[in-house]
Automatic annotation (TrEMBL):
This is Integrase core domain-containing protein. It comes from the Bacteria. Residues 1-26 are annotated as: Disordered. Coiled coil: none annotated. Residues 22-81 form the Integrase catalytic domain.
Length: 93
């Protein structure tokens, strides 16, 4: 995602993407800023990590197990992602 910021809007359009109509600034990234803030408090600030591998494993576990499966999200009506997906109509590919 960060690499896209280096491209011009015309380059992004040619690649089939759309840019945000919102002005650049803090409000544009509110969701990701909220996520990083929460992860900082719930995981990163709670202990010191001895190695990068230990930290990487903790982040993977936080994302894959807690955040994506158990954490309630305001953007989906304070449901967990698993609860939200169960409410969606099933589709056959």
């Amino acid at each position: 995602m960060y690499g896209l910021a280096l491209l011009e809007p015309d380059d992004l359009h040619q690649a089939g993407t759309r840019t945000s109509p919102a002005p650049h600034g803090r409000g544009q990234n509110a969701v990701i800023e909220s996520f990083w803030s929460r992860m900082q408090v719930e995981l990163l600030d709670r202990r010191r990590w001895r190695t990068r591998l230990e930290l990487a494993n903790a982040i993977f576990e936080y994302l894959g197990i807690f955040h994506n499966r158990q954490q309630r999200h305001s953007a989906i009506g304070w449901l967990t992602p698993v609860e939200f997906e169960k409410r969606l109509p099933s589709t056959v590919a």
